[in-house]
Write a structure and sequence with these properties.
The complex is a heterodimer.
Chain A (H helix, E strand, L loop, with lengths): L3 E7 L2 E10 L4 H13 L4 E12 L1 H15 L4 E5 L3 H9 L7 E3 L2 H11 L1
Parallel strand pairs in A: 2-3, 3-4, 4-5
Antiparallel strand pairs in A: 1-2
Chain B lengths: L3 E5 L4 H16 L4 H25 L5 E6 L4 E7 L30 H9 L2 E7 L2 E9 L6
Antiparallel strand pairs in B: 1-2, 2-3, 3-5, 4-5
Helix pairs in contact in B: 1-2, 2-3
Classes of the chains: A alpha/beta, B alpha+beta.
Chain lengths: 116, 144
């Protein structure tokens, strides 16, 4: 399974739907998309990982890189993930404290809106 | 003798193949289903690291992976032959976010932190010119 990326705007927040495997081979494509979005003025991002089948440290690095970029513009990058096997990687690396991780896209957007 | 041995050119595209093969041999070796995700991820991390150091130091040399499921443990050894690999800090320092909120504080080798958190048993050793990462998990039915 390759990596499939789609994105759309909901309530002023750019939602990135990721499907497939994020690894050392495919992660550069996600990195490019996040950079393009930030360069295009999108600083409020939600990355939906519900259809991600595999995530490794390269993928984590890309997400952290995206977070740094949006924060440089006072933006945010939240994640949607309920899969235990993916959440485990965030826990092992301590990144559950760095990202806002939500159960659904709606919840992530609502949480972001309520902070404004 | 390893149950399955493979070598692959140090390209990111082949890491997925290595993961798939390792997971298949682990399953056949009787590694519990619940642990297969850990095998898949840890082998992927070790191979990604090997690809990275090979690309930097010896892109013409293959990465080697040996999978052995002939005992009560399923063992994976990922070996790089990069002379320029000065080694790594093992065990890796605790993951960053663990103590703070600063995403900039990621360790240089996040992959090793993931391996340390996943593999049941890990040993890192110098092997000729390069380094070997040896990992193992419990297995029940020896593969033949």
């Amino acid at each position: 399974m390759d990596l499939k990326l789609e994105h759309h705007t909901t309530d002023g927040i750019e939602v990135v739907d990721v499907e497939g495997e994020i690894d050392v081979y495919t992660a550069p494509r996600l990195r490019e998309l996040l950079i393009d979005l930030v360069n295009g003025g999108h600083y409020q991002l939600v990355v939906n990982m519900e259809k991600v089948e595999f995530l490794d440290s390269t993928g984590l690095g890309v997400l952290v890189g995206g977070l740094k970029r949006v924060r440089a513009h006072d933006g945010s990058l939240d994640l949607v993930c309920t899969q235990e096997r993916i959440l485990k990687i965030f826990r092992i690396t301590g990144l559950t404290k760095v990202f806002g991780i939500h159960d659904s896209v709606d919840e992530a957007i609502a949480a972001r809106k309520s902070e404004k | 003798m390893a149950t399955v041995e493979m070598t692959f050119t140090p390209l990111p595209a082949h890491v997925r193949t290595a993961r798939l093969v390792a997971t298949a041999v682990a399953r056949r070796s009787g590694v519990p289903e619940a642990l297969l995700d850990e095998v898949r991820l840890a082998v992927g991390e070790a191979c990604s690291r090997a690809v990275e150091v090979h690309q930097e130091h010896c892109p013409a040399e293959p990465v080697r992976v040996a999978l052995t499921g002939a005992g009560e443990r399923f063992e994976v050894v990922v070996t790089n032959t990069a002379t320029g690999d000065d080694g790594m800090e093992w065990p890796p320092r605790p993951a960053p976010g663990a103590d703070g909120q600063d995403p900039a504080a990621l360790p240089a080798e996040l992959g090793l932190a993931v391996i340390a958190g996943l593999a049941d048993d890990v040993q890192v050793s110098r092997n000729g010119d390069g380094l070997s990462i040896r990992m193992s998990w419990p297995a029940s039915s020896p593969a033949r």
